[in-house]
């Protein structure tokens, strides 16, 4: 049976020792889905939602990028990683905003958490900026879509 990697032999929380691992190219893509409503979408113009706080999606992209870069400050046992790239995109499908965060690095550990944190914080920023219009907003899901590098790759079909 697999053991939890963040538990020491004594049963205490522990950061995984990646010192002996080889450096390799690591990528991850995460998605968050935010369900809005018609009242909010009446403010959708061009490719964004206009609010008094500013453009919702553009602000969410910046917030998600900042969060991905600071994942180690938010998730206690994550390693500090210098990201080579972080790209967040947001598009709508009807009343739904789909956030995707793709991150990459050359390192000894994966970037799944950075992608998940980036997508999550972008989704939370959409909520924060749209709640003045309506609180009927649901962050439906956040999930890892794919990762490469390390022991095994992962790819989730839509």
From TrEMBL:
Keyword Ligase: no
GO terms under biological process: Mo-molybdopterin cofactor biosynthetic process
Keyword tRNA processing attributed: no
Residue span, Molybdopterin cofactor biosynthesis C (MoaC) domain: 15-150
Source taxon at top rank: Bacteria
Pathway: Cofactor biosynthesis; molybdopterin biosynthesis
Function: Catalyzes the conversion of (8S)-3',8-cyclo-7,8-dihydroguanosine 5'-triphosphate to cyclic pyranopterin monophosphate (cPMP).
Record PANTHER family: MOLYBDENUM COFACTOR BIOSYNTHESIS PROTEIN 1, MOLYBDOPTERIN COFACTOR SYNTHESIS PROTEIN A
Name of the protein in its database record: Cyclic pyranopterin monophosphate synthase subunit MoaC
């Amino acid at each position: 049976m697999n053991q939890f990697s963040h538990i020491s032999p004594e049963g205490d929380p522990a950061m995984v020792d990646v010192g002996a691992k080889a450096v390799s190219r690591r990528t991850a893509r995460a998605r968050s889905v935010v369900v809005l409503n018609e009242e909010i979408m009446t403010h959708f113009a061009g490719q964004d939602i206009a609010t008094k706080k500013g453009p919702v999606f553009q602000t969410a992209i910046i917030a998600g990028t900042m969060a991905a870069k600071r994942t180690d400050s938010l998730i206690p046992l994550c390693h500090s990683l210098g990201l080579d790239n972080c790209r967040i995109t947001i598009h709508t499908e009807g009343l739904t905003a789909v956030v995707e965060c793709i991150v990459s690095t050359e390192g000894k550990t994966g970037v799944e958490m950075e992608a998940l944190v980036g997508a999550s914080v972008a989704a939370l920023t959409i909520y924060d900026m749209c709640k003045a219009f309506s609180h009927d907003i649901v962050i439906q899901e956040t999930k890892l879509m794919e990762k490469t590098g390390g022991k095994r790759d992962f790819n989730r079909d839509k």
